[in-house]
């Protein structure tokens, strides 16, 4: 039955799109981490442009993902109150929780908010975490500095490339 339901098909497509966007977000975060680490190891590198490009891409992906979540809810006959975030049936003119008025066209159209969604918990939790203290970091029998590998070839190539551009 669900296979012939056009709403179910649309929902599945939106969910798949969001899964792909989530994978892309993870890849960009991973690349930002490696770029930052390259700069940490060699302070003569400047990768801020490369990092910012990926940050912008992540922001766009987060906005797309949130918009798709609203589209999925819409297909399910629901809309979100922009004031209190409570989900309501599409036909409601006013929020059942806080009484805020919905836009007149909210029954027939998805209202995608402009601007960026708030920082996700996966980012906030990392920012809030206390930094690793010196005593914790040195509490190991392995001498990490002695084990430090050189910057890999691919990172070294990026550096060479930057030198040529001067
Ligand atoms: Zn509300």
Give an overview in words.
This protein is mainly α and 166 residues long. The protein is 55% helix and 4% strand. The protein has six helices and two strands. It has a two-stranded antiparallel sheet. A hairpin with a 6-residue loop joins strand 1 and strand 2. Helix 1 runs antiparallel to helix 2. The radius of gyration is 23 Å and the shape is elongated. The termini are far apart. Bound molecules: zinc ion. Residues 81, 83-84, 86, 95, 97-98, 100 line the site of zinc ion (ZN).
User: What sequence of helices (H) and strands (E) makes up the elements?
Assistant: HHEEHHHH
Q: What general outline do the C-alpha atoms trace?
A: elongated
Main pleated sheet? 2 strands, antiparallel
DSSP strand count: 2
Q: If you compute it from the alpha carbons, what radius of gyration comes out, rounded to the nearest whole angstrom?
A: 23 Å
Terminal-residue CA separation: 64 Å
- Ligand set: zinc ion
Helix content: 55-70%
- Average per-residue pLDDT, rounded, comes to 85
β-strand amount: under 5%
Number of helices: 6
Residue stretches low in confidence (pLDDT < 50, at least 5 long) are 162-166
| Helix vs. strand class | mainly alpha
Oligomeric category: single chain
Strand order of the largest sheet: 1-2
State the main characteristics:
elongated; two-stranded antiparallel sheet; 166 residues; 2 strands; binds zinc ion; disordered C terminus
Topology, please?
Elements: H1 6-41, H2 48-75, E1 78-80, E2 87-89, H3 121-128, H4 134-137, H5 144-147, H6 153-164
Antiparallel strand pairs: 1-2
The structure holds zinc ion (ZN).
